[in-house]
């Protein structure tokens, strides 16, 4: 099995286009959450806040590729371009089959689905529906559009696993590299924001509704006053390759992917159990040959829900006690859905390489059911050698990745 390293990263987030705006916003403790006008137009919808990507210039993507892209594919394309440029991959490497692709979204474009069914249901007609709309609706829309845009001819995977998607695509990509199936992998996740996404969490009573008049104060992971998820949008892409390949190319190595696990929790489709979370973390560490005592930092899933945050806290405490520092980034970004795991892995790599830990924003009073772990409430300067990234999805799909600071 080959050692797998990260050599490129790209991001689109509520803080803007690029990894630099993402990390500047996180390090400064900013919030990307604001009122969303479209939510006010929906009858019966309680949340009115969300994390939206600022206006971007989609026209940098040639029209012949852009016409089959919804916002999520546009986000993914821009993030992928940044990652490929950072990794220093030329066109020949991208198109000759040595680069594979592993990227997905929670579902296809809800924005396009609304447009399609508005025309179809109102007149029971398909007149006026563009031929390109299916390419935005299909579940592998991001993967297909990226492959077309960059001319990728290697394997293409689109493993959709809701909130675990961004973490799972990276884990599966790392296995493809480790087993020698591909020389390079472009991997990550993307999602676009739509009122129906917010409505889904509102219907299952998992959305934040108590901070509509003070949006930057929610979500509140691990806090006694947390009241649910704040939905967001964005994309994040990473370039992975073998250590040997990166060394031969003279590429800058950003981090090493050391372990991965993805498990099913059949106990409850809407809320993970502490035992299932603990098992997934343990298997990821075992996959990397790493003891729980070696973990310096846990980047938590930490959505701000009552049951989810409590279960994750209990699981971390049972496996690793109070040794690792723990923080989550959704207080800054909101929940970017399929992009969340990849965006938060990029942030974890940045923290690792800069010797700092970004605190959990809006964590003021630690809830009694979230005690027992070492929460980070202020920016800390400290070295991180080994980090564990958690992501847990509706439907009981748990995913964990172990990241290590590269040391040859």
In short:
This protein is an alpha/beta fold and 408 residues long.
Report on this structure.
With 408 residues, this protein is α/β, with parallel strands linked by helices. The chain folds into two domains: 4-249, 3-Layer(aba) Sandwich (Peroxisomal Thiolase, Chain A, domain 1); 259-404, Thiolase/Chalcone synthase (Peroxisomal Thiolase, Chain A, domain 1), CATH 3.40.47. It contains 15 helices and 16 strands. The model has no long low-confidence stretch (mean pLDDT 96).
Topology:
Elements: E1 4-13, E2 16-17, H1 19-27, E3 34-35, H2 37-40, E4 49-50, H3 63-66, H4 71-87, H5 91-95, E5 99-104, H6 110-123, H7 133-137, H8 141-150, E6 156-157, H9 165-178, E7 184-191, H10 195-203, E8 234-242, H11 243-249, E9 255-264, H12 274-287, E10 297-299, H13 306-320, E11 325-327, H14 330-333, H15 340-354, E12 356-357, E13 374-375, E14 380-381, E15 386-393, E16 397-404
Parallel strand pairs: 5-6, 5-7, 10-11, 10-15, 11-13
Antiparallel strand pairs: 1-2, 1-8, 1-9, 3-4, 7-8, 9-16, 12-14, 15-16
Helix pairs in contact: 4-8, 9-15, 12-13
